[in-house]
Amino acid sequence: MEKSKEKISKALIIGIKNEIRVIELYSQYVKRDASSESKKEVKNLIRDEERHTRLLKNAFEKSLNKKLNTSKIKDDSLKAVEIVKNDPSYLHIIDIAIGYEKREKAHFEKSEKEINDKELKELFNTLAKEEQGHIDVLEHERKAALGQPFDEYELDLYVRE
Question: 148, CA 20 to 30 Å: which among 6, 10, 106, 154?
Fold first, then answer.
């Protein structure tokens, strides 16, 4: 495989692995004793991440003209977050998810700079912005779970007149 195709393949597969991991983290989160509003927010994140996974898989298949079997990728990815299945703390899951979201954002930003394909650059740019949105949601959820006061700006996100 030539160097640029190898870079593309690696960038997309790493992205897919991270998306699968946060989907699992979020799925575990909604099983915990969090508020119904918080669970609703996290379910929205799951839908976003599932869409990201589809976009990355489609980009892989289009860019490299190869079918991608995600079952092995999924198995490898889930091993990395298996420990949370027995973790009763939804706050700990939020903390781990924030870490993965930050890593994913950084990965997409790096990939956007390194890859020359215009469509992939746009995809990585868009996904990096959406991951920042996920980080913001998680940080708000964390504050709410800890009973920490909201900034005025944050209140606007939760209170509508």
Answer: 106
Give me the number of domains the chain comprises: 1
Domain of 100, CATH number, reads: 1.20.1260.10
Q: What domain range is 136 assigned to?
A: 3-158
Rg from Cα positions in the chain: 17
CB 109 within 8 A of CB 131: no
Measured CA to CA, the distance from residue 29 to residue 22 in angstroms comes to: 10
How far apart are alpha carbons 38 and 47 in whole angstroms? 15
70: tokens are 């995600």
Q: Which residue has the higher pLDDT, 126 or 142?
A: 126
Q: What is the pLDDT of residue 45?
A: 96
Rounded to two decimals, what is the model's pTM? 0.86
User: What is the band of 150 on the pLDDT scale with cuts at 50, 70, 90?
Assistant: low
Token digits of residue 141: 């959820």
Q: How far apart are CA 77 and CA 80, in angstroms?
A: 6
Alpha helices (H) in the chain, listed in sequence order: 3-29, 36-64, 70-81, 90-114, 118-146, 152-158
Would you place residue 156 in the very low, low, confident or very high pLDDT band (cuts 50, 70, 90)? low
Q: How confident is the model at residue 151, as a pLDDT?
A: 61
Q: Which residue type does 106 have?
A: A
